[in-house]
Amino acid sequence: LSGLDPAQPYFQGTPIEVRLDKSDADFVDIIHTDSAPTIPNLGFGISPAIGHIDFYPNGGEQMPGCGKNPVSQIVDLDGIWEGTRDFVACNHLRSYKYYSDSIIYPDGFLGYPCASYDLFQSGNCFPCPEEGCPNMGHYADKFKDKINKDFLKLYLNTGEARDFPLWRYKVTVTLSGRSKVKGYVNVALYGSGGNTKQYQITKGTLKPDNTYTAYIDADVNVGKITKVKFLWNNNWINPTFPKLGAATITVEAGQNR
C-alpha cells in the first residue's frame, strides 16, 4: 500500500483502526508532502511516521515550486483546472506527481535514512548505507526485505517542476594557488548518464590548500563520471591577477558510495 500524503485533519493521532497504518498491508510506504500543522499552516497531510517506510521529500512540509505566484500557477502548462487545484493544495498534490514521475525513473528519488531533514541537508546522512537507499514511489517495495526498524524515516530533495527526481553528490575541492582571494567556486559534473549545470561549492575567502565540501542535488544521474569542470571567479577586476586552481576534486555519489 502506498500512502500519498495521507490526510491529517480528523485522522492524525486517532486509533489505527480508522487511519492508514503499517498493519494494513505486508508493506506500507508513505510519501509526506504537506505535513505542516493544519493550524495555522493549513497542512492537509499527516506528519508522524505511520508506514514501514516514510518518505519526507524536501522535509515533508513545503514543496519547492509551490510558492510560485498564484497567476503563474493557475495558467500552468497543465491547464487551468490543474493549475487552480495546485494553487489551493499544491503541497498535498505533489505526492501523486512524485509517484507518477517515480514510475519513469526507477533509479530516482533515493530516500536517505536520517533522524531529521536538517541533518540530511547538512550531509550527516550521506551516502546511502551498505544496504542502499529505498526509492520513493513506485519502486519502494524493492526495499521490503531490508527493513529492520519499526519506523524508517527517509529524506530527499526534489526539483521545483517536472521532472522531479534529483541525484545527490558530495563534491570536495582542495584549492591550489599562491594567495587567498575572495570569490566563489563552481563545479559541474560530466558523465556517461549526462552532464549537470554548474553548482556553487563555496563562496567568500578562498584559501589555497584549503578544502571545501558541498552536497549538490543534480537533476541528472551522471553515472560514471568522465570529467569535472572547475571554475572560480572573484567577481571584480583585481590588478594582481590572482590565480587559483583545483589541486584535487573528489566526487562521491550517494547511491553507490
UniProtKB/TrEMBL annotation:
SUPFAM superfamilies: alpha/beta-Hydrolases, Lipase/lipooxygenase domain (PLAT/LH2 domain). It is a peripheral membrane protein. It catalyses: a 1,2-diacyl-sn-glycero-3-phosphocholine + H2O = a monoacyl-sn-glycero-3-phosphocholine + a fatty acid + H(+); 1,2-didecanoylglycerol + H2O = decanoylglycerol + decanoate + H(+); a 1,2-diacyl-3-O-(beta-D-galactosyl)-sn-glycerol + 2 H2O = 3-beta-D-galactosyl-sn-glycerol + 2 a fatty acid + 2 H(+); 1,2-dioctanoyl-3-O-[alpha-D-galactosyl-(1->6)-beta-D-galactosyl]-sn-glycerol + H2O = octanoyl-3-O-[alpha-D-galactosyl-(1->6)-beta-D-galactosyl]-sn-glycerol + octanoate + H(+). Its main location: other. PROSITE patterns: PLAT. One of its GO terms (biological process) is lipid catabolic process. Residues 167-257 form the PLAT domain. GO terms for molecular function: galactolipase activity; lipoprotein lipase activity. The keyword Hydrolase applies. It is an enzyme of class 3 (hydrolase). It is found in: Cell projection, Neuron projection; Secreted; Zymogen granule membrane. Its EC number is 3.1.1.26. Keywords: Cell projection, Cytoplasmic vesicle, Disulfide bond, Hydrolase, Lipid degradation, Lipid metabolism, Secreted. Belongs to the AB hydrolase superfamily. Lipase family. This is Pancreatic lipase-related protein 2. It comes from Erpornis zantholeuca.
